[in-house]
Amino acid sequence: MGPFEWDHGYEVGIPVIDEQHRDLVSSISMAITQLSQENNPQELSPLLDGIAQHAGIHFKFEEDLMEAYADPRLQAHRDEHASLLPQLRRFKERNRAGVPSHKLEHVSAFLSIWLRTHINTQDRLLAAHLKRVGAKEAQA
Ligand SMILES: [Fe+2]
């Protein structure tokens, strides 16, 4: 199984969040597959920009939910979301500078670990909060 194939390990039990995670995982997967088949897989900037944009929209959605349902962990969760963007920027800079360890497979490994860890910690806590307060998004 590839690092960006959807599996149940990604599910947090909030349908709208699971659906957005599934979209995010599949768009990263498609971009990486496409780029790995191109002649110059070293040019990662458009891939990283696309991922940053897609992730940004999804992060905002989660943060709005946390605000709407007064999740006490909003700030910690928001900080973790915000930490991804400078990491993507650093990959871009190092890739442009020709640092060999910042190639596609490293970006792919980094992203899959980051996403899984984030979903299994912050996003699971958010899901638990939404269920606890009886949010309509928590209903199947
Ligand atoms: Fe999140």
Which tags fit this structure?
140 residues, single chain, binds fe (ii) ion, elongated, 4 helices, mainly alpha, 0% strand
Secondary-structure map with pairings?
Elements: H1 15-37, H2 45-68, H3 74-96, H4 104-132
Helix pairs in contact: 1-2, 2-3, 3-4
Bound molecules: fe (ii) ion (FE2).
The site of fe (ii) ion has 6 residues, from helix 3 and helix 4.
Order of helices and strands: HHHH
Briefly note the structural class of the backbone: mainly alpha
Largest sheet: none
Give the low-confidence spans: none
* Spatial shape: elongated
What is the rounded distance between the termini? 28 Å
Fraction of residues in helix: over 70%
Bound heterogens, unique: fe (ii) ion
Number of extended strands: 0
Radius of gyration: 16 Å
Count the helices. How many? 4
Average pLDDT level: 89
Number of domains: 1
Strand content: under 5%
Q: What's the oligomerization state?
A: single chain
Architecture overview:
The chain is mainly alpha-helical and 140 residues long. The protein has one domain (24-34, 48-138). 71% of the residues lie in helices and 0% in strands. Fe (ii) ion is lined by residues 62, 77, 81, 118, 122-123.
Please give a quick description of this structure.
Helix content is about 70%, strand content about 0%. It has about 140 residues and is an all-alpha fold. Fe (ii) ion binds next to helix 3 and helix 4.
